[in-house]
């Protein structure tokens, strides 16, 4: 169903989410690092809840866009920097576009993608929990770069999704 909706995408339709991913790598990497430095126990509990809600969608074919965005927004909130939160909220529509593109890959099962995303989110969460700012920054940046890479199958060049999106060694 989603693939049929996306067939008519133009180059400019794909460029916007791609550019948004580029921006988010820096923005959210720094938000995750800040969250690791200043998060409270309450922030950590809210982040764990957002992670649990996302992980609860492993099966059933749900895209989990709201749950995914909620996790990223909670990371920004845990930074205690309103600029991170405002920037992410202002990008909501573009973020959803990018998530939709990333989840509708041509040959990778949705449950496999969701499991990979959950694993990547868990790495971000654990780094924030452990107050490891560099690990949080790296985990978030790698997560977003993998998601960006997973949108390549929509590019006009016809490149298909590489399995390295789900390779934990990346």
Automatic annotation (TrEMBL):
Superkingdom as given in the UniProt entry: Bacteria
InterPro entries in the record: GntR_C, TF_FadR/GntR_C
SMART domains: FCD (SM00895)
UniProt source species: Rhizobium acidisoli
One protein family per Pfam: FCD
Gene Ontology molecular-function annotations: DNA binding
Domain GntR C-terminal, first and last residues per copy: 19-146
Protein name: FadR family transcriptional regulator
Keywords: DNA-binding, Plasmid, Repressor, Transcription, Transcription regulation
Keyword Membrane recorded: no
